[in-house]
Amino acid sequence: MKSDVLPVLIVEDEGIVEMMMEEMVRYLGCKVLASSRTLDRGIAFAESEDVDFALLDYDLGDGTDALPIAEALAERDIPFVFVTAHPSAVLQQAFPDVPVLIKPLQLGQLERVMPLRRTVH
Fold first, then answer.
1. Given a cut of 70, is residue 10 above it in pLDDT?
2. Distance between CA atoms of 38 and 6, rounded to whole angstroms?
3. C-alpha 40: how far from its chain's center?
4. Which domains does the chain have, with CATH numbers?
5. How far is the C-alpha of 12 from the C-alpha of 80, rounded, in Å?
6. Are 72 and 47 in contact (CB under 8 A)?
7. Torsion sign over Cα 46, 72, 78, 16
8. Which residues contact 80 (CB under 8 A, 6 or more apart)?
9. Are 82 and 109 in contact (CB under 8 A)?
10. Alpha carbons 82 and 64: distance in angstroms, whole number
11. With bands split at pLDDT 50, 70 and 90, how would you rate the model's confidence at 58?
12. From its phi and psi, is residue 63 left (phi > 0), alpha (psi between -120 and 50) or beta?
């Protein structure tokens, strides 16, 4: 049986931004189950962890993007959103129905897209 707390995957290559996203997720009453700064670990988590939602930074640096992670999540029917400072046509073509949150990320943006299974403050 699943917990009432939403388990979340975060993939973000910038450490400070990753920590801020983790704090926001926790503030909203959810649990950060896994967090990654790289494409390879992000894919591994997306394929194996028992997450119910994911936040994906689109541009992971070093010329990589989060599209393979998104594909792995989509194959498992796990909802996700992209978080980016630079939205791209490629992103919107690949996943036209997935919300794109623009950095700097605000708590209200995240709250609007997070599923409702959270703890109460």
1. yes
2. 23
3. 15
4. 7-113 (3.40.50.2300)
5. 13
6. yes
7. positive
8. 9, 53, 54, 55, 56, 70, 73, 74, 98
9. no
10. 14
11. very high
12. left
The C-alpha angle 59, 115, 112, rounded to 5 degrees, equals 70
- Round to whole Å and give the CA distance between 118 and 47: 23
Position of tokens 């801020």?
20
Neighbour-count burial of 66, counting CB atoms closer than 10 A to its CB (0-12 exposed, 13-18 middle, 19+ buried): buried
Asked whether the beta carbons of 107 and 21 are under 8 A apart, the reply is no
Count H helices and E strands in the chain, helices first. 5, 5
Confidence category of residue 87, pLDDT binned at 50, 70, 90:
confident
- Tokens representing 43? 């894919």
- Answer whether 41's CB lies under 8 Å from 18's CB: no
With contact defined as beta carbons under 8 Å apart, do 82 and 99 qualify? yes
Is this prediction's pTM over 0.90?
A: yes
Q: What DSSP state is assigned to residue 9? A: E
* Tokens read off for 35: 């967090």
